[in-house]
Amino acid sequence: MRVLSVVDTTAGSDNGHNRALSKRKEPHPMSSTRLRRLTRVALAGLAGLGLTVGSAAAATGAGATTVSVPHYSFSTHFDPADPTFNQFLAINDAGVIAGYFGIGNADHPNKGYTFGRPYGVGDFVDENFPGSVQTQVTGINDSGTTVGFYADAAGDNFGWVRRGQTWTVVIDPHTTGTINQLLGTNDHGLAVGFYTDAAGHDHSYVFDFHDDSFLPVNIPGALDVTATGINDRGEICGFYNKPGGPTLGFLLEDGHLTSFAIRHSSSTMPAGINDAGTVVGTYAGANPKDTLSFVWQDGSATTVADPEGLLTTDVNGINNHGDLVGFYTDAAGNVVGFEALP
Q1: What are the tens digits of pLDDT across the range 217-249?
Q2: What share of the chain is helix, strand, coil (3-state, %, to 5)?
Q3: Taking phi first (over 0 means left), then psi (-120 to 50 degrees means alpha), and beta for anything else, what does residue 46 get?
């Protein structure tokens, strides 16, 4: 078993327990027997490779500083198939955006797409796992490989990788619950995501889609760990929580674990990372119903808010040019995808 030695350079945080992830949709219950049977079929011949995060050294520090960011140019877009609900989740260096439309219920299911320049209504390309009931495209790399997850008729979630016209189902063999989701990918054949266990706790992993191997990503003492992004240097971002504590963001780089929180927030949830180690995500505002977004690097954070948003702005992706994508809720209650250029 490979062991990753981790040093925790944790930044200070505030107390709180709010926890949510825009990319996640809760499934209907499914028996663990059925899931194990599917795992054996889908992952036949898988060579398992273990990775465990070692004990983290305790450390303290100041919470991240937040300031306003006035220098982004925002543009909004929506798939003509659904002008009421669009979420942009990732963007590559060519400006191709990954996302989906549809609120996620039976009458309004999630339907995945990619969306490229010049960002006209004809530039949305449907991307849905064959035979799925719902699909979200959550990550895209510079070669156009995409990752995400789909739901079957029972509402159970399964991760997937698409390279060209080839789809690969991704289910961590340790899964005992009903959720597997891939949330981010890089240019070196690695994707990150998580599965749930029978008790409903999240466990994260790195999936190598060149050899179909899994590496667990564990944080000592954490109840739930959700890895959301990985860059070409192998740095991983995500969030976790410990018993009785708030939801904290993390950056795992070169064997070191940095935990951080946006000051005065009860919940800090990174969603994406670029090759410079710049992390983007969301945090809870003073009103727990408010969702704000941040850009974080080297212990300093800035707040990002779409001027058209009403209480909620979710930044989910960043590329190496510093372009951001995400979504906001407007005054009419529509969820609108946006691109923000620095």
Answers
A1: 999 999 999 999 999 999 999 999 999 999 999
A2: 5, 45, 50
A3: beta
